[in-house]
Amino acid sequence: MVVKEVLSIRGLKKSYPGVMALKGVNLAFKAGEIHGLIGENGAGKSTLIKILAGIVKPDDGEVTILGKSVQIRNSKDSSRNRLCFIHQELNLVTYFNAAENIFLGHSYPRRLRFFVDWKRLKAKTKEITDALQVRIPLDTPVSYLSAVDRAMVAIARAFAVSGDIYFMDEPATALTDIEKEKLFRVIKTLKSQGKTVVYVSHNLDDILDITDRITVMRDGTVVECRETLETTKDDLIRSMIGKSLESAFPSREGKAGAVVFKAGDIHNESIDGLSFDVRAGEILGIGGLVGAGRTELLETIFGARGKDSGTFTLNGVPFRPSSPRSAIEQGVVLVPEERRKQGLVLSRSIYENISMMSLGDISNFGFLNHRVIRNRSEEAGEKVRLKCSSYSNHVGTLSGGNQQKVVFAKTVLQEPKLLLLDEPSKGVDVGARFEIYSIIRDLASRGTAVIIVSSDFNEVLGLTDRILFIKEGRMVSLKDNIDMNQEKYLNCCYGRDS
Amino acid sequence: MKELVSQATTGHLTIRIVRTWGTFMGFLLLLIVFSAIRPDVFPSGRNLKNIIEQVATLAIVATGVTAVMVTGDFDLSVGSIASLVGIVAALLMKAGHGTFISVIIAMILGTSAGLINGLLIAYGGLSAFVGTLATMTAYGGVALIASNGTTIFGLPENFRFLGQESVAFIPVSVVIMILSLGVVYALLEQTTYGRRLYAIGGNEEASYLSGIRTKQVRFLSFGISGFFASLGGIVLTSRLHSAHPQAGSPFMLNAAAAVFLGMTAFREGEANILGTLLGVLIIGVMGNGLNILGINSYVQSILTGIIIILAVLLSSVAKKRA
Ligand SMILES: Nc1ncnc2c1ncn2[C@@H]1O[C@H](COP(=O)(O)OP(=O)(O)OP(=O)(O)O)[C@@H](O)[C@H]1O
Ligand SMILES: [Mg+2]
């Protein structure tokens, strides 16, 4: 079979002050293939995709589609060339509903030329979501949707008009396995129709699972391009970070100590009578499906959500977090689920963001000690392998994974008693992920109690000591994490106790 | 200054310079143009001193408004607060109370008026625009009732000190202006409170989840705005040596205009004190220069509007090119 190149890129360059994001990239995608694009955080994957979407202007380079050289100056140009995108960061208008968001930027169906045809808009949206096999409430502003539903809206956007090449920049980070499978099914359908899908992810298992070829990028260049069938995970890791990783998770060590945190019969609108405890040095995973109340549980412990009844105890004394502020003051910190919405002030510098939680401790009577703040932020940043050209740059200029590292670095500064983690490694590359797991382990071994929620079951299985499974806000089971596997894990999530 | 320039981290060098220094260069251009047209009058030491004295009260009020606008809020009530404070101080002095104590009481009242804004907006959940629009009207009404709608003359002689006298050749009003700018500059740039204001302006939810008491911080920012509006009102009353129930009205739009102009300078899209000072100076120089050229005040308003649009356009065009 002769497969022709549908899109090729030659000598693509883009520099930002202090960094060259792309240093002359050459790449080609074929018709009917699923092409994996991987590389460390900051390697330039999103920049490449944003250039093809007409969002970022390249300094130099040529893009050829079906043998013809094309200019992509804006998003109109890219959709004229039948390119479709799912971008890494959800850019949704929060007070628009799903339908309005999905067709934003494409023309809305109209009546009498000027009026939006709401009926048809809704019908078309329904078609798209049905193809994805998801049910998203269509009449609610997306700000009220769950993180998963919001991610699905962003995904659905790529299918508002049909195209030939689909670029998906880490589309699955907020999804659970169930939604992910649905997405993969759609991707395979696209492939069978002869279309091309370029898929960016840090989940190498997914990459090996669905792609035909894989391109590895490092520091703004293409390192290599391989056939997936001839590749192993270890090969990929080695060409991404230049060395092998012996294991994906740090080894568990030490014994759990005294009980640090205890929840007794907690009730609120999403939680229905949960009781459990966490010991010093222990990592507790919360297992469950979307909507089980995992995020809500963490938010309740953090004081960001009220509770109707029940008690918390921290180190033996009652813990009554009236706000995140009071939780932090008592040594409880949260890495929130959505970094851009809840974790970061994008328009402020990296060191301001890292030091945000601990400003009060670092300052002298309310006056900032810039030198100490900078030093300590840089220290925390280096621990999580943050890659940036200067700590005074805005967080918004960082790559997605590096932004996530900033959110994590904030809590590292704190030496918390109880660390709450909601999807802590979202978008982080394999190397840095190991670093983050090591920090979590290290904090635990020094006596911090840790609770972690993650849609990546590997992460839960690899990192935790015990797993509390919940469903609809109620406890299903509490398991020691020994000889757990994917199947058992999923059974527990569904409440089918084995 | 090095710090400020490095804030603008994206885009090419020339565009970055235009973006951070464009408004400042526009200001220099204004000075050059007026000096070229009327070299005998405009650039004279006397006239420049005159300009600074004219803008001192606006600068004082605008420093407070800057603090509020850093969080993305807005304060429309500063003009009414300034007027009200002037009236109250004047009435107290007329009633025979000491000048000092009258000023202090009026200032406390004005600051409280600001805190009431904060209460309504931060804790009551009103939008800043609606909340201060309402209190602007209400405080303005109180000033009118208290003064019977007339100007209050015959204030004590020693009350001239703040607005009309000089210490070592520097007008007292200018000293107050410099102190106000300095205090708010330090507050915004050197304190944890300032950091928190900027953090809230960037992302309120993330700030809250990082342990910032967002309501309290916003509440206080309106108190700061109320305080400086009161101070501006007192200096203005002293300068005029009379209190008029609507004397402060021009502050409302001019202070906001100055902060907006300032947001186009030095930093991208963020209210900052140096920018506000620049905005105040632009408004002052425009007014003074056009007066010297004999251009009538209606035309002046049109030109001021055009200048604001130009500055904002210029900086946003520079932003897009990055
Ligand atoms: N607007 C910007 N201003 C300055 N630097 C930028 C900007 N956008 C991206 N960069 C830099 O360009 C480099 C490449 O970023 P890019 O987002 O393409 O990485 P990525 O491969 O997508 O990483 P990740 O896996 O973390 O998403 C990074 O060093 C990043 O800091
Ligand atoms: Mg990216």
The gist of it:
The complex is a heterodimer of chains A (498) and B (322). Chain A has 18 helices and 22 strands.
**Average pLDDT value of chain A?**
90
Strand content range of chain B: under 5%
Low-confidence stretches of chain B: 1-10
What is the residue-averaged pLDDT of chain B? 90
Bound molecules: adenosine-5'-triphosphate, magnesium ion
Oligomer class? heterodimer
CATH topology of the largest domain in chain A: Rossmann fold
Distance between the termini of chain A: 48 Å
Question: Which CATH-level-2 architecture of the largest domain in chain A?
Answer: 3-Layer(aba) Sandwich
CATH evolutionary superfamily of the largest domain in chain A: P-loop containing nucleotide triphosphate hydrolases
Shape of chain B: globular
* Structural classification of chain A: alpha/beta
The level of helicity of chain B is: over 70%
- Largest sheet entry of chain B: 2 strands, antiparallel
Q: What is the number of helices of chain B?
A: 14
CATH class of the largest domain in chain A: Alpha Beta
Largest sheet of chain A: 6 strands, mixed
